[in-house]
From TrEMBL:
Top-rank lineage group of the source organism: Bacteria
Name listed for the protein in its UniProt record: ABC transporter permease
Subcellular localization: Cell membrane
Family: Belongs to the binding-protein-dependent transport system permease family.
TM ranges: 64-86, 98-116, 122-142, 182-207, 219-237
Membrane topology classification: Multi-pass membrane protein
Organism in which the protein naturally occurs: Streptomyces hokutonensis
Gene3D superfamilies noted in UniProt: MetI-like
Alphabetized InterPro entries for the sequence: MetI-like (IPR000515), MetI-like_sf (IPR035906)
Keywords of the record: Cell membrane, Membrane, Transmembrane, Transmembrane helix, Transport
Record domain ABC transmembrane type-1: where: 57-241
């Protein structure tokens, strides 16, 4: 079954690439707006030999990794504190519900005003968007804690932080890993968006420069790179999730199947 799925996926990708080659060649779409696949591939090959491309890729990965790490750490700590400290969650519920729906792109003017086109502008947007993915998953994970396990831990005299470590954290970890996987994708989207709009160094700014200079094949090549980057990040996040949850029933069942 796995081999069949791989073959079907490869066939679908080949058909998509072939369609991308044929559509501009027959004039359905002008080549000036959508170059054939072969031209995009040639532009991508040229980009891979350009040191400026690798520098931009490094800038993007730096903003993504730092923003995600800060968001994960802050989200986990805040989620645990909100559940451990009495009445804190109730006191902050309305504030969270007010801040969470605010789109990160709405903070772009604030980011530019504070930090200009520096990395800190990118981090502000990435952390804000990714933080909520982690926090909400931690809160849901804590709600899923078995009350019997919680009361048993109390009856054995476990303190607050011992219960967090041995009861709360194992129950919340599957939710946390889901939040990390979602946050990783959101962080990449916001990193590219910030670079595009703000002009911070990275792949987004390089795409903007290619578009403004009418280097259309190069622009599409860079867009392909962002797509591949998202694919690699998603696969990597799922791999980490499976390894971190190797003991969990859902992962054991997935491996068995």
């Amino acid at each position: 079954m796995k081999g069949l799925n791989t073959a079907l996926g490869a066939a679908g990708l080949a058909a998509f690439l072939a369609l991308g080659e044929v559509v501009p060649r027959v004039g359905i779409v002008k080549e000036a707006y959508f170059p054939p696949t072969s031209k995009i591939a040639s532009a991508l090959r040229d980009e891979l030999t350009d040191s400026a491309f690798w520098s931009a890729l490094g800038d993007t990965l730096t903003g993504w990794a730092l923003g995600l790490a800060i968001a994960v750490g802050a989200g986990i700590v805040a989620g645990v504190l909100l559940t451990v400290v009495p009445y804190l969650r109730e006191a902050t519920a309305s504030t969270i519900e007010f801040l969470r729906p605010i789109p990160s792109v709405a903070l772009i003017p604030l980011a530019v005003l504070l930090y200009g086109t520096e990395l800190r502008s990118v981090l502000l947007l990435v952390v804000y968007a990714s933080f909520w993915q982690i926090l909400i998953q931690v809160l849901y994970g804590v709600q899923d804690v078995d009350p019997v396990a919680e009361e048993t831990a109390r009856s054995y005299g476990l303190g607050t932080w011992a219960r967090v470590r041995h009861v709360l954290w194992p129950s919340a970890l599957p939710y946390v890993m889901t939040g990390v996987r979602l946050a990783a994708a959101v962080a990449l989207i916001l990193t590219i968006t910030a670079e595009l709009v703000i002009g911070a160094p990275g792949l987004g700014a390089t795409i903007m420069v290619a578009q403004s200079s009418q280097a259309v094949p190069e622009m599409y090549a860079l867009i392909v790179v962002t797509g591949l980057l998202g694919l690699v990040i998603n696969v990597g996040a799922r791999t980490v999730e499976r390894r971190a949850l190797a003991w969990h029933q859902s992962v054991r069942g997935e491996v068995t199947v």
